[in-house]
Amino acid sequence: MRHTRRRWLGLVGSALLCACGALAPAAAEGQSGNLVVFAAASLKNALDEIAAGWTRETGRPAPKVSYAASNTLAKQIGQGAPADLFFSADPDWMDHAQGKGLIRPDTRVTLLGNRLVLIATKDATVTVALAPGLDLARALGCGRLAMGNVAGVRAGKYGKAALEKLGAWEGVKDRIAQAESVRAALLLVSRGEAPLGIVYQTDGAADPNVRVVGTFPEDTHPPILYPVAITTDSTSPDAPGFLAYLRGAAARAAFERQGFTVLNRPASGN
User: At residue 56, does pLDDT exceed 60?
Assistant: First the structure.
C-alpha cells in the first residue's frame, strides 16, 4: 500500500491541473504530512467548525478536509489517496474499506446518527404527508425529485428505500434528478432547479434557501450511521488526537448544533 500511495502522489503531481476539485487539495496536502480527513459531504458544516476548534485549542496545523460521497472517498483511498481519517456516511463503504485493509479496525467508531427529510424551496407552499400511500408525483408537479444517486450515494439509497416503503417509488422513479452527493442534491433545490429533494436532516437545516416539509419515519429506511476510522496508511501523528477530539465534548456540541445525534460507540455496537 505504501508503494500505491507514492504512485498516487506522483500521478497527482503530474496531473494537478486536471485533478478533481474534491481530491486535489487533499492529495497535495498529503505530501507535506498535514492531517488529511476524507469526509462525507453531509458533514461539512459541522466538521469545518470542529477542525477550526481543534486548531485553536491545540495549536496544531488545521486538518485538510476533502468532502465527497462516501463511495467516492472509499474508492480514492483504495487507489492510494493519502488520507489519514475516513469519516463515512455509509457503513457499507466503511465495511468495504475495512475488508480491503484500508482502515485500522481498532480505531473504528460509529460516531453519529441522522434523519432523512424531504425539502422544498423556502417559499414553496407544498405540503406532503410522508405516510403509506404517498403520492409524491402530484407534489412534484412538472418538476423532478433531487436526491443522491440511488446506486452509489448512501442518502440516495436511503431515499429510494423510504419511497418504496411508502409506495411512492414507482410514481417518481423516472423523475429523479440523481446527484453525485447529498450536498449536490441539496443545491439543486436551493437553486430552484428541483422543487423537492431528499437529504439528511442536517443538510436541510444548513441551507437557508430550503425548508423541511417532512421527516421520513425511521422504520422506512435502514439506520443512518456515520462511522469514522484512521486509515492504515496514515502518516500524520495528529490522526489519533483528532479522532479523540471528534469524540469529545466540543465536537459533540458542534455536531448537535447541526442536528446530528451523537452515538460515539465502538464498531462492535453496529
Answer: yes
The model's pLDDT over 71-81, given as tens digits with 9 standing for 90+, comes to 999 999 999 99
Domain ranges of the chain: 2-113+225-269, 116-220
SS (H, E, C) the chain: CHHHHHHHHHHHHHCHHHCCCCCHHHHHHHCCCCCEEEEEHHHHHHHHHHHHHHHHHHCCCCCEEEEECHHHHHHHHHCCCCCCEEECCCHHHHHHHHHCCCECHHHCEEEEECCEEEEEECCCCCCCCCCCCCCHHHHHCCCCEEEECCCCCHHHHHHHHHHHHCCCHHHHHHHEEEECCHHHHHHHHHCCCCCEEEEEHHHHHHCCCEEEEEECCHHHCCCCEEEEEEECCCCCCCHHHHHHHHCCHHHHHHHHHCCCEEEEEEHHHC
Q: 116-220: which CATH architecture?
A: 3-Layer(aba) Sandwich (3.40)
User: Which CATH number does 2-113+225-269 carry?
Assistant: 3.40.190.10
